[in-house]
């Protein structure tokens, strides 16, 4: 999950917002929600796919990882597309890709087809995030009680959270668990395509289309703070990625729990709390946010390791919640530094770099855990991974402590 939201928000904040109809706002928010939901629907279905197609946990983590890679490539190649050709065509393309992904999943009878479907999902997420966030910022009046960034945040993270829970419930209650969730997703995504198609273009200024890879950029003026935030948020994303990839496997093989809804609940909690963490950060002093996030990541890693060691569900669920809160705080801290302290002309590239790091952390550790599972088993792999996350968070925390400038006392 989680995005290009902050970049798009930063780009349009300086532009005047014009009020749009409630129907158009609802259509864009719904398109954002269902597109992101479609990217997490497979989460609770992986164990069923594994049984049906006969593949191992490392294949599951690989299937998940190609989604994150698709998002990174999509952000770097198409991150500015809605600025060039307009929000509406990009929104339609993203929701159409979501429809295509659901169709491919419906037809999937082999592992390569699952990989193709996940790549399509990654591109749909990359396209929708920036375009939908910018469109919402242009549709919702500046003096509205509900801010565009809040709507975008809940559409984004809410979609990521709801997709996995919806799939789990349908897999448990509806016939054909590998078909019904995708039929529902397909219908909702098709409605989103129609809804977006009925809206008007919101971008007042557009540039000509150019196919160009967006360069990465680490702002020199805040390099240390940028890297600390990226490391902390990246550690949280690594946990989100592993939870998304192997929670169903843990529930089935370790807890011997057949409920796909419970597996979906864990990932739902993680993503929902990531959104909540980005809101709660406003109640914490800016200088303490990253330290609190690191402590939260360490606590979450300990809880997840405890779940692995004791074969218990409660520590896993609580750990997912704590990790989500900490990750949301780290993301918010990083974006605040970029948008307020970096050079304006490089902010877009800096935000892209920030999220490219996060999505890379979403993919690579998941593959590493898959390799560990194959070499050992799920429980020791989870414990080793938790230890690595805790160490990474501790390194960031120690860096904060060691570089903190001492307060001068008057002579």
Tally of separate helices: 15
Radius of gyration, in Å, reads 20 Å
Q: What order do the SSEs take from the amino end to the carboxyl end, as H and E? A: HHHHHHHHHHHHHHH
What is the molecular shape? Answer: globular
> Whole-Å distance between the termini?
51 Å
- Class inferred from helices and paired strands: mainly alpha
Could you report the average pLDDT, rounded to the nearest whole number? 86
Largest sheet: none
Helix fraction by DSSP (H/I, runs of at least 4):
over 70%
Give the amount of beta strand, in percent: under 5%
Total strands: 0
Low-confidence stretches: 1-20, 407-411
Write the layout of secondary structure elements.
Blueprint lengths: L4 H9 L8 H19 L5 H8 L3 H22 L2 H5 L1 H21 L3 H29 L8 H26 L6 H18 L25 H32 L5 H21 L8 H22 L2 H29 L5 H29 L2 H26 L8
